[in-house]
Amino acid sequence: MLRHLMYKIKSTGPISVAEYMKEVLTNPAKGYYVHHDMLGEKGDFITSPEISQIFGELLGIWFVSEWMTSGKSTAFQLVELGPGRGTLAGDILRVFSQLGSVLKTCDISIHLVEVSQKLSEIQALTLTEEKLPLERDAESLVYMKGVTKSGIPISWYRDLKDVPKGYSFYLAHEFFDALPVHKFQKTPQGWREVLVDIDPQVSDKLRFVLAPCATPAEAFIQHDERRDHVEVCPDAGIIIQELSERIALAGGAALIADYGHDGTKTDTFRGFCGHQLHDVLIAPGTADLTADVDFSYLRRMAQGKVASLGPVEQRTFLKNMGIDVRLKVLLDKADEPSLKQQLLRGYDMLMNPQKMGERFNFFALLPHQRLHDASQERNARQSKIPTSSVAGFDELVWQ
Ligand code: SAH
């Protein structure tokens, strides 16, 4: 990867951080995500669904609750962006099975958007029935197809644009932070983009430089920007626009969970290797690269086509979804002390403000009508206590 990047820079000059990130993470031949299983204790980082089954279960309940509140459509697609090892989708599907009596008249299909060959294989192992062979076609937009263990059709795509546009619930957990960001520094001469160049002192080392003049990507910076360093993720903007158009047109909702901020942070680009911080320019391709999600940018990119909710902190969202009740049920059922310990440790990781409780946020996109209906319902009840408009963002109330 380092050789490839050096060659690129030598032939066309310094590259943007976004181009660097894209090459390092998703280059089809050598990208970090493409051939690696980086998740879990033995990998480079661990995510909430890998820590506790409760996380995915509560998200499953969120989708069922939204489906019920918005009129129990006869069919929906669950579309997950960047499904990792498939653990989250597996936990959600278990909830769908357990609520089979509620969902029995609904035609569900699963659609996974994944660029990683390696991870898509692991997802298939987690989610599909071994005895039923998968259909594969590397040339097709749907590069893999099968049936889940509970008998639901499941398909894999490389790009959200290729997923059918029907009524859908979209899910992205720790996906947006992996998308490439442009970085800019305010200078006395105006905004200058941060680029990656070869260090003239050490021939096989990379370094950051500032572009000598304005670059086209500068157009992404807001006119009234007050920070002196900003990161912008145009790919995230494109995906949010696509999601917003789809939801406005066909209905459904998107639930996005990630670490991030609401347009306040500056330099968040970093690397992780073996659960430790890693210099982003050293040994590219061996470590995860990530930048905090700017939720204010996502909200802006929805361009008013849909309503947005959040970001709310993970601990608030999960509490509203009933994490304490679910933990109690599982603790009562667990007979092994080690299992109880594991459940409690998982809960602490997800909820503790010093751990993931405050660092991670939930953000949702919903049709305008959905929030309009909720506020009318509230007025009709003339209640001073806010009733559940949207679960997670308010307390979950079963209808
Ligand atoms: N959601 C999972 C995994 C998060 S890791 C979890 O919470 O455990 C990021 C995931 O996004 C991986 O599956 C990675 O392969 C995928 N990914 C990264 N960039 C992508 C892109 N541009 N398009 C589609 N998938 C991508």
UniProtKB/TrEMBL annotation:
Entry-linked Pfam families: Methyltransf_28 (PF02636)
Entry annotated with the keyword Transferase: yes
Subcellular location per the Swiss-Prot or TrEMBL entry: Mitochondrion
Enzyme Commission no: 2.1.1.320
Main location: mitochondrion
SUPFAM superfamilies (UniProt xref): S-adenosyl-L-methionine-dependent methyltransferases
GO terms for biological process, alphabetical: methylation; mitochondrial respiratory chain complex I assembly
Subunit structure: Interacts with NDUFS2.
UniProt similarity note: Belongs to the NDUFAF7 family.
Protein name per UniProt: Protein arginine methyltransferase NDUFAF7
Organism annotation: Cricetulus griseus (Chinese hamster)
Upper lineage: Eukaryota, Metazoa, Chordata, Craniata, Vertebrata
Gene encoding the protein: Ndufaf7
